[in-house]
Design brief:
Aminopeptidase, 7 strands, binds coenzyme A, about 35% helix, alpha+beta
């Protein structure tokens, strides 16, 4: 409990019983298409069926017993310690109050603990994702790639990336060697 008598925000592992809340939060943001919400439902089912055991992570932000947001992240297959943040969403009335930042920091800390090297996030170039893109930029993410018309004509995929570990000497040496 904080000085104002409110429980402070907790970030905890997502429980299977949270699924309806997480689906409701994602739908309430109004930014995800129906097929994306369907994909989220499948992702959460697969998470509890097998992917949690395979190293995927899902966390829920909770305050006063209410789920306010969640983040889902996992290692990218066939890479050397690259991770993906697949989902992050905050209940609209509670957006812009630090919940998303707390979830993102928690995800980054978990990835660092696993010696993760690079965290990637895919999002859309559409205007209604402008605040989302600003959110990633404010947290030190650079635009690593733009795939024109990926989602549909006029809707590019914008890939944000952030290095979470320093470039290893071996890799740096290779890069220098390739220039000279
Ligand atoms: C993006 C999101 C997770 C950020 O979480 P949040 O709790 O709202 O963000 P925080 O309060 O921690 O950070 C606020 C910053 O994020 C950005 N931001 C993102 N969404 C915002 C919103 N609805 N209102 C105001 N600022 C927002 C701004 O840059 C803001 O800082 P600034 O005003 O100083 O520029 C959340 O707004 C959300 O759920 N958006 C809809 C779903 C979504 O786009 N998910 C990502 C899909 S790729």
């Amino acid at each position: 409990m904080n000085d104002d008598g409110f429980d402070s925000l907790a970030i905890r592992p997502t429980d299977q019983a949270d699924m309806p809340d997480l689906m409701q939060i994602a739908a309430a943001t109004g930014v995800f298409k129906r097929m994306e919400l369907q994909a989220l439902s499948e992702v959460l089912h697969d998470f509890f069926a097998e992917n949690q055991a395979a190293g995927h992570c899902c966390v829920t932000a909770e305050q006063e017993g209410q789920a306010l947001g969640f983040a889902y992240y996992a290692p990218a297959a066939m890479t050397d310690r690259t991770w993906y943040l697949y989902w992050i969403a905050v209940r609209p009335p509670r957006q812009a109050r630090g919940v998303g930042s707390a979830l993102l920091h928690h995800a980054e800390e978990t990835v660092r603990r696993h010696n993760g090297r690079l965290l990637l996030i895919e999002t859309s170039s559409l205007p209604h994702y402008k605040l989302t893109r600003r959110f990633y930029a404010r947290h030190g993410y650079d635009v690593a790639a733009v795939l024109k018309d990926f989602y549909s004509d006029g809707d590019d995929m914008v890939v944000f990336g952030k290095r979470l570990a320093v470039v290893s000497e071996r890799t740096a040496g290779k890069a220098e060697g390739s220039i000279s």
